[in-house]
């Protein structure tokens, strides 16, 4: 794994599939067993509550500002609020600094959360390893992270992509929080709310959408002048990442629309060549589940994606290349356009509903590859023109790259190379 590695988490609902490496449309011959994987027992080591009175658990970090010099540290204490302070220091420094955060709790039906802490550390140095400590007394815990290099056009950087979700059961949010800690406490995740995170359950008296998600994950949305934590942007190394919310109002005149309308023209591709959009619901999908669910959003936003040359849109299912509907012909048959993004669907972290396998037949020409499986992706940005995307199936006994593709920047087109498109 690359030394610098960051993660997107697309919290997606229905499940996995993806890709291959030929340029025509294809369906993978790999067939994942259809039996549901058994849940890991709750007494598994990965869900273990750390020892010590009121010991911090579910520790995770998130980028805390627009450029990558800030980090939000979040953790949960079970017995009492305890301390809101994060102690932190640069790798080779003896100077220990403190940042102070907030603590909150929330109720969901008959569940009451433990004490959830969020603390933003600001003004860190780029490209530096920091240690940090949360908790007090004999239950302090130490972790570390490395800040990204400063924003710049040819800064290589590796991102990991996965999606997953725990659903309505808030006790599962806690076990899942402890499960991901071994990664999320060390590498910032970029969160995108999915349909399971809506947690809209008026029958249980829970009519405010995204309640657990919003309480558990604090995001740097104000740094990008967003007015809600469900759509926001960050810059990291050579990438400009825009997170959209499929499940918040998005039509014309809504806050999300107005924010995006101002956002796209501001992206400076000389500083951040890679323009990446994350959303939960795919605009193009040829799976039966959720088929055409992204259509209202596509109608509104695809013209901007093409106009502003978005490089890649990550959502939840199969990979599709370089397509844009020709919306003027009323037939809505997708046309190839080298300004259009590649749509990669990575809805494959796993879920409790099992695989969504039914695909529409025949496979549409705009679909480059599909596989009903679980796995994760890695996006390796090499320079301003080239990025490599690899997809790793998770059911093999070894780390296998089931599919990969070179992505060519839409704005800084590599010269002399043939565009790679499914149609
Ligand atoms: C932590 O400290 C408390 C209070 O001093 C003590 O009761 C407890 O046994 C200690 N726990 C551990 C794991 O050392
Ligand atoms: C910090 O110390 C480590 C180990 O001695 C060394 O490899 C690294 O280069 C140092 N970093 C800085 C920024 O001085
Ligand atoms: C909460 O309600 C669920 C569903 O009715 C039930 O299974 C669970 O035991 C309840 N939990 C508590 C703490 O009462
Ligand atoms: C884009 O960024 C470059 C490099 O920082 C700068 O020279 C240029 O003025 C910026 N363009 C705009 C429109 O701000
Ligand atoms: C889109 O459709 C219109 C009307 O049929 C046609 O004139 C135009 O050439 C099409 N554009 C592309 C890029 O296919
Ligand atoms: C691609 O889309 C853009 C924006 O709609 C349009 O200006 C351009 O003509 C299209 N190119 C092709 C080859 O259709
Ligand atoms: C960008 O990276 C690609 C893939 O590693 C490489 O082939 C290409 O030469 C690089 N471009 C420049 C300008 O270094």
Automatic annotation (TrEMBL):
- In this entry, which stretches build a coiled coil? none
Going by the entry's taxonomy, the superkingdom of the source organism is recorded as Eukaryota
What EC designation does it have? Answer: 3.1.3.2
UniProt keyword Membrane, yes or no: no
> Which reaction(s) does its UniProt entry say it catalyses?
a phosphate monoester + H2O = an alcohol + phosphate
For the keyword Glycoprotein, the answer is yes
Q: Which UniProt keywords apply?
A: Glycoprotein, Hydrolase, Iron, Metal-binding, Signal, Zinc
Q: What is the annotated signal peptide range for this record? A: 1-26
Name the coenzymes or cofactors required: Zn(2+); Fe cation
**Any single Pfam family the record assigns to this protein:** Metallophos
**Gene Ontology molecular function, alphabetical:** acid phosphatase activity; metal ion binding
Q: Which SUPFAM superfamilies does the entry link to?
A: Metallo-dependent phosphatases, Purple acid phosphatase, N-terminal domain
Any idea where the Fibronectin type-III domain is? 55-150
> Which family is it part of?
Belongs to the metallophosphoesterase superfamily. Purple acid phosphatase family.
What is the name of this protein?
Answer: Purple acid phosphatase
Record organism: Citrus x changshan-huyou
């Amino acid at each position: 794994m690359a030394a610098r590695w960051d993660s997107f988490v697309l919290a997606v609902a229905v499940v996995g599939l993806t890709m291959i490496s030929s340029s025509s449309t294809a369906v993978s011959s790999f067939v994942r067993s259809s039996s549901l994987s058994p849940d890991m027992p709750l007494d598994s080591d990965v869900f273990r509550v750390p020892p010590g009175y009121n010991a911090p658990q579910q520790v995770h970090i998130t980028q805390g500002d627009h450029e990558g010099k800030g980090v939000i540290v979040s953790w949960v204490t079970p017995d009492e609020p305890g301390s809101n302070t994060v102690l932190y220091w640069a790798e080779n420094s003896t100077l220990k600094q403190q940042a102070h955060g907030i603590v909150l709790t929330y109720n969901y039906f008959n569940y009451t959360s433990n004490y959830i802490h969020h603390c933003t550390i600001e003004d860190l140095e780029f490209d530096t390893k920091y240690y940090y400590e949360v908790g007090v007394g004999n239950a302090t815990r130490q972790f570390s992270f490395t800040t990204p290099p400063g924003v710049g056009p040819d800064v290589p950087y590796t991102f990991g992509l996965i999606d997953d979700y725990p659903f309505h059961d808030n006790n599962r949010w806690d076990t899942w929080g402890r499960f991901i800690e071994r990664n999320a406490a060390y590498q910032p995740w970029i969160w995108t709310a999915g349909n399971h995170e809506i947690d809209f359950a008026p029958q249980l008296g829970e009519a405010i959408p995204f309640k657990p998600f919003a309480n558990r994950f604090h995001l740097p949305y104000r740094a990008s002048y967003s007015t809600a934590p469900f759509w926001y942007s960050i810059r990291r190394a050579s990438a400009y990442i825009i997170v959209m919310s499929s499940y918040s109002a998005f039509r014309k005149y809504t806050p999300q629309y107005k924010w995006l309308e101002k956002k796209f023209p501001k992206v400076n591709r000389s500083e951040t060549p890679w323009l990446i959009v994350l959303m939960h619901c795919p605009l193009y999908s040829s799976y039966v589940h959720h088929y055409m669910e992204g259509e209202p959003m596509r109608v509104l936003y695809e013209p901007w994606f093409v106009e502003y040359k978005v490089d890649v849109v990550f959502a939840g299912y199969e990979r599709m290349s370089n397509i844009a509907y020709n919306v003027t012909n009323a037939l809505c048959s997708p046309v190839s356009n080298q300004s259009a993004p590649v749509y990669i669907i990575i809805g494959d972290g796993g879920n409790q509903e099992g695989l969504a396998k039914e695909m529409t037949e025949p496979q549409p020409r705009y679909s480059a590859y599909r596989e009903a499986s679980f796995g994760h992706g890695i996006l390796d940005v090499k320079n301003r023109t080239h990025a490599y995307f690899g997809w790793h199936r998770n059911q093999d006994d070894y780390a296998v790259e089931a599919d990969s593709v070179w992505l060519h920047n839409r704005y800084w087109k590599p010269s002399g190379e043939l565009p790679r498109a499914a149609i």
